[in-house]
Amino acid sequence: MTAPLLRALAGESVWPPPMWLMRQAGRYLPEYRAIRGQSSGFIDLCLTPVRATEVTLQPIRRYGFDAAILFSDILMLPYALGADLRFLEGEGPVLKPIRTPADMAVLDAGRLLAATAPIMETVSNVRAALGPETTLIGFAGSPWTVLCYMIEGHGSKEFAEVRGLAYRDPVLFAALLDLVTQTTVTYLSAQIEAGADVVMLFDSWAGVLPAAQFRRFVIEPTRIIVAALKQLHPATPIIGFPRLAGTMLSEYAATGVQGVGVDTSADPVHAAAAVPAHIAVQGNMDPLVLVAGGAAMTEAASAVLEAWRGRPAIFNLGHGIVPQTPPEHVAALVKLVRDA
Ligand code: CP3
Description:
The structure is a single chain. This protein has 17 helices and 9 strands. It is α/β, with parallel strands linked by helices. Strands 1-4-5-6-7-8-9 form a 7-stranded parallel sheet. A two-stranded antiparallel ribbon has the order 2-3. Strand 6 (238-242), helix 13 (249-252) and strand 7 (259-261) form a beta-alpha-beta unit. The longest helix has 25 residues, at 170-194. It is globular. It starts with a helix and ends with a helix. The structure holds coproporphyrinogen III. Coproporphyrinogen III binds next to strand 3.
């Protein structure tokens, strides 16, 4: 028996579509907050296999989603390379910015596998705990989005420092892009070897780029990562999520991925037409309508389901679950999708 989510990523129109939700493990769940409270911080939680395993499994036990996603963060890669990273309560991630060759010298690709060994232990623990019908998704940030945080030093609307550096010092920027691209291959390959059935690339800030740079900083590194992973693990499907890609969605779909994540802003009918019929679409209900619930949610879920009907697809949100989401609304959404 092949798991429903893997069938969708193999190009099959599975109905009702398999589902999981971005950030399905997190602060909206009381059982997550309990374990988070026992950890000395978010990084500590990500690097403690028993706790990270438990937190990964919590939403599967509660809702029976078709996929578990490894509990970790896209910034664990730069952290493992030696970047100075902290998660500040209520502020999100803060990194010591990398903007010069001297800053870059603190990064050491040689540390990656030793530093991420606890994450690989979590992957194998989770895989061992799941039934064959549930797919385990490993992930990394896409090089562009990881560099957004590494160079800017924190979240931003425009990422002006990162985009400025790419224009001002293309040589340093290219070296950083190459380092993150190559280490992402090593990191995802290790997750697959540890037991991840699928890997996903989160490109949350793809949408801040003009078209020419979208091709060089989003599409090209994605192609390189996909090609390298296909060489090492030809059977492992890859999902790419180029958030706010807009009109670049169909070009992105040609990077070799088996699934394309569609963000909240996209018309799902347009996205279903822009992504070729052998590639699964994944998304894209508004996370805020999940907070509202009720008739608004029923209508929003139906619109996505109708757009996805008859083609390979995975039901998801268009971005991560927000902390104020009532857990019972998630249960109601699962029922809506399962009854479709
Ligand atoms: O359940 C899952 O989806 C798996 C775990 C996961 C997390 N982050 C856990 C997390 C995944 C896949 C991510 C990806 C991630 N992390 C992205 C890409 C997706 C997106 O949301 O656009 C990005 C940009 C990050 C970086 C990051 N991590 C930010 C900006 C923040 C702060 C914002 C916030 O929600 O607090 C984090 C922290 C973070 N990552 C939390 C969780 C559960 C909250 C930390 C806590 O518990 O204190």
